Amino acid sequence: MSKMSGTKDLPRSLSKGLPLWASTKALVYVTGAYTFYRTYTEAVGQMQNAVGFQGLQYQYLTLITLLGNLIAHSAASAAVLLGSNWLWDAKNLLMCYVAPLEVVVSLVYWPVMMYDRTLVVPKVVEDLGIVSIWFDLHLHAIPTLFALADFLLYSPRPRIGPRMYACVSVVYTHIYWIVLKKTHYMMGVYPYPFMDLATETQRKLMFGAGTCLTCGIYFGLCQVYDTMHRRQPSAGLQ
């Protein structure tokens, strides 16, 4: 393995052996963390002003993945700058779930938005006009690009195997479902208008399909990673 590829597993060696490469990575991570922080806080602030409730950001998958990206990039920034291996490992583990979910958000949002914006943008948000195209890109495109760049270029090869990944995906899908049902009980509506148009069975099928899509994207990204870095796929943790 080359010296540069080996540094993916040891951020401390980046700081000592390859200062330019370490500085570039740190700049990318710090920029990402700052961008996601600004976007997240602005989105939450606008939501609270529009709806008048706190904590409702956790019903939006877009903001959940954005928060995950913020945490991952903040941890990566500290790991590269401080040479912390455990922070680096924590970021790598978190990004295994954040990156595929960001891809799911983009794949679902943009086609539906171009077909009928009212299906994915709540009426209260649309009436207030608080989501510009630039802000839309910061929510549904830029985080995906940062996550993919980290997953494919800066991180070591993911070691989570199919069974473990599927089990964890099912768990957080159920948690998200519980959160949605709770907020629906409080507000009387679902966060995305298209969910109100669907039946309960259709909503459950959507969640099942979303879980399968997330797992498929993760395995696909692992294959792309192996191709880019010319590595043999590993079995990973089962």
Q: What topology emerges from the helices and strands here?
A:
Blueprint: H1 3-6, H2 11-17, H3 19-51, H4 61-82, H5 85-115, H6 123-128, H7 133-140, H8 142-154, H9 162-187, H10 193-197, H11 200-229
Helix pairs in contact: 2-3, 2-4, 3-4, 4-5, 5-8, 5-11, 9-11
Describe this structure in words.
This protein is an all-alpha fold. It has one domain. The protein is built from 11 helices and no strands. The longest helix is centred in the N-terminal third of the chain and has 33 residues, at 19-51. The chain is globular, with a radius of gyration of 19 Å. The model is unreliable at 1-7 and 13-18 (pLDDT under 50).
* Beta-strand residue fraction: under 5%
Quaternary class:
single chain
Number of strands: 0
Radius of gyration: 19 Å
Poorly predicted runs are: 1-7, 13-18
Described by strand count, sense and barrel closure, the largest sheet is:
none
What value does the average pLDDT take? Answer: 83
Termini separation: 25 Å
Number of helices: 11
Query: Which secondary-structure class do the elements indicate?
Result: mainly alpha
Helix/strand order, N-terminal first: HHHHHHHHHHH
Task: Write a brief caption for the model.
The chain is mainly α and 238 residues long.
Which terms summarize this structure?
238 residues; single chain
